[in-house]
UniProtKB/TrEMBL annotation:
Residues 12-81 form the Transposase-associated domain. InterPro entries: Transpos_assoc, Transposase_21. It comes from the Eukaryota. This is Transposase-associated domain-containing protein.
Amino acid sequence: MGDNRKAMYEGWRKNGAHSREWQAIVEDFLKQAFKVARGPVTLCSCLDCKNGSYKTRHVMEEHLCRFGFMPDYLVWHKHGEQARRRISEPAQQNRDGMMMDMLNDLAMGFEFDPEEYNQPPPEVQEFYRLLEASDEKLHDHTEKTVLDTVLRLMAIKSKHNISNSCFNDITKTGLGMKYEKIDVCPSNCMLFWREDDKLSTCRHCGKSRYIQVKNEAGENVDTTVSAKQLWYMPIISRLKRLFLSMKIAKSMRWHKERRRGSQSEDVMVHPADGDAWKALDEFDPKFARDPRSVRLGLATDGFTTFSTSASPYSCWPVFIMPYNLPPEMVLKDEFIFLALIIPGPEHPVKNLNVFLRPLIEELKQLWTAVKAYDSYAKKEFNLRATYL
Ligand SMILES: [Zn+2]
Ligand SMILES: [Zn+2]
């Protein structure tokens, strides 16, 4: 990327008499964009589309001529380029500050000392490897870091409406956070997942799984671009990771061991005081006996604000929170896990069960138990969890 990219904006003329440099850049841009595109369409970067809709090469060229480039698109990061330069200084500085805060939080949380053990469990080693990797990149301002991505995910919580491009922005996994993109029927009837993974049309409404474009004969043809996608970030690995920190592993027992006798009976200060908690204790005493059994809260941002802040490109994050932690920790960002990003624009609540399927599959596993390592007790245990 050279300074000649300025011509993207300086070379465009309202009357269509664009400069030669501008034309050369558009040619470069289209070549680059369609080199990395997965099909005959890609995001259009014109002032009208603003990387918000997919167009064919021909239409994109027309749009760019007619409207010019969208502002601040000197780095073509939606079209295969890494951000190599600070585009907006104040925003970048703000982000760096927030990232430092997050790193400090992480450092405080993870006091596990691998030298205590001759051979730390593989998960512990993997965690440290990831932590190091994210740290390294943090000091290199030249490309998106893992932490940057985590931060973006966190920002979703404070913002109810996010452009569709948020899905494309999340290009990396954060601190070992794996994610899965699952195609959804455009009408939210079903997921193209597991036994339905090979289908190309919806079993219920027959709509195509893929974006369609018209060919020269005017017929609709499938592209390889999915019409709608659900983002799913598995929670088991993250729950296990909580127990890798001695401090957090200890805090996960708080609801049972430390709080006893500290509050008067009739004041509800923690979900452990609630009826749902007590009912679960009675339902499964074995689950209740281990203080490490995790009780999860499920939160869906944006549902209530839909009517006032509806935008055509919104998405709906679903969060999971371990309620075992003491009140001062339970609502901290790092203990609120983003589990799903449900694509908009429709209110997802009608079809919520469709979208929750992958999460429910994991919860079934967690109800039976998964192997985890407890850094506080310094041994493996059977981790169980359920939601209240
Ligand atoms: Zn356009
Ligand atoms: Zn359908």
